[in-house]
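User: Second chain of the day. Same drill as before.
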Amino acid sequence: MTIMLYELAGRDAARPFSPHCWKTVMSLAHKGLEFERSAVPFTGVPEVENRFGKTVPVLRDGDKVISDSFDIALYLEETYPDRPTLFGGEGGVALSRFMEAWSASQIHTTIGGRLLLDIHAMLEPQDQAYFRESREARFGRPLEDVVEAGAERIREFGAKLEPLRLMLKRQPFIGGEGPLFADYIVFGAFQWARVCSAEELLEPDDPVSLWFDRCLDLHAGIGRSVAAAA
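Assistant: Same format as last time:
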């Protein structure tokens, strides 16, 4: 039975942008599994799989339905142990837990506010209304003010990546010689920015940029299947 992935997209269904959904796309490709992708707008998420959850990604594999990118990765690892590993053992799971927390606190909080208007512009009108209302309630101010304030955070972004940069000077991937789910966690954040915004976050020769390019080339270039924002 075909594996189905429900992922977030805007007006153009061929441009999925959610960082969390991209983690799952890369995980499925890493495992070499065939899957179909179903684009879901923000206002359509509550209807996925008979109101299974409040967020995507959601994965259906036969009669099994799972949400949350980390839980999906754990499911894939357990269900398809004969396929390439996403974790390389318990230590890799622990590493990925750390990278999840680090990415959320250092990368998402830095670039997320900066992307709000870019994301808003990608949506259909009904989703724009939902997005503006929900995000302005979250941030406590208009989207335009959040984006303007985000400019200062972007200027500090390079310094926040120094631990990752130092690691990637010594090895090609966070997982070592090859990628693991820990790589896909951070990749998802950079892919989010790449798909939504034309703003350059890093210099092309930055070790983190070079690592991101290597990730884009993985699994027959599935990351490049969506062009960068122009």
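The mean pLDDT is 97.

User: Great, on to the next one.
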